[in-house]
Write a structure and sequence with these properties.
The chain is of the alpha/beta class and 267 residues long. It is built from ten helices and ten strands.
């Protein structure tokens, strides 16, 4: 699989991500306080909530960048939190895109997209470059294969980061506020790429502050606050008519720029 294909389905037909009783503390600060939710195969789930609610920590626990204190996480059939898990093997099935682009400054776009393929997957140079070019084309950067990160805009760098993740052939994509570091005029191109992935059937778990994206692209939205899931449901209902007062207050502040400046904001 090149990353251009619709993600494969496991024979068991199980959920792509299943989280049960997830807890995580940093010192005396309990950031996640018993999280339960799931992502079906081919589904797009957006996680929203105020700054400090545990959204990024949740995402990092899914591929064990942070080790949970309690609970279980299963990804594409493997228990990530199990004592015998081969986490490197599981991570090869998960693509992750961070807020920062984390590109190697001394490598071109092509080099950044090929290096992990060669070092981790053992692909030869020709195959890695073919797959890299396909995925750079997929994110609209076919003409930037020879450009270095310093020669690219922030939005272009983030699209290179997405191409890098796709080139590994993931079954699940995790996005940790991928547009938060971008100037407003650069956000649209990155969200456009993500829309394309959703339309192609990629399973996606997205931490985002882009409410229009959540409403238009997500199948479900999960509202996280204080380390717990306050509510979740179909995206359109959650954004326009949430059932919980806490969710309504948060969205009124996020969707109203004037209120957001004096409210809690999004992080």
């Amino acid at each position: 699989m090149t990353g251009l294909d619709t993600p494969a389905r496991d024979a068991d037909g199980g959920r792509a991500i299943e989280i049960r009783g997830l807890r995580k503390s940093f010192g005396t600060n309990e950031v996640l306080r018993g999280i339960d939710f799931h992502v079906e195969r081919g589904e797009v789930v957006c996680v929203i909530g105020p700054s400090g609610s545990g959204k990024s920590t949740l995402l990092r626990c899914v591929n064990l960048l942070e080790e949970p204190d309690a609970g279980t996480v299963r990804v594409v059939g493997a228990e990530v939190t199990g004592p015998e898990v081969d986490i490197d093997a599981v991570r090869r099935r998960i693509g992750m895109v961070f807020q920062s682009f984390n590109l190697f400054p001394h490598l071109t776009a092509l080099g950044n997209v090929t290096i992990a393929q060669r070092k981790v997957l053992g692909r030869d140079r020709a195959e890695a470059e073919r797959i890299a070019r396909e995925n750079l084309d997929r994110v609209g950067l076919a003409d930037k294969v020879g450009a270095y990160p310093a020669q690219l805009s922030g939005g272009q760098q983030q699209r290179v980061a997405i191409a890098r993740a796709l080139a590994m052939g993931p079954e699940v994509m995790l996005f940790d506020e991928p547009t938060s570091a971008l100037d407003p005029e650069l956000v649209g191109d990155v969200l456009g790429v993500m829309r394309g992935l959703a339309e192609a059937g990629m399973t996606m778990l997205v931490v985002t502050h882009e409410m229009s994206f959540a409403r238009e692209v997500a199948d479900r939205v999960v509202f996280l606050d204080g380390g717990v899931v306050v509510e979740e449901g179909p995206a359109a209902r959650m954004i326009t008519d949430p059932g919980h007062e806490r969710t309504r207050v948060f969205l009124s502040r996020v969707l109203d720029p004037a209120a957001a400046r004096v409210g809690e904001g999004e992080g």
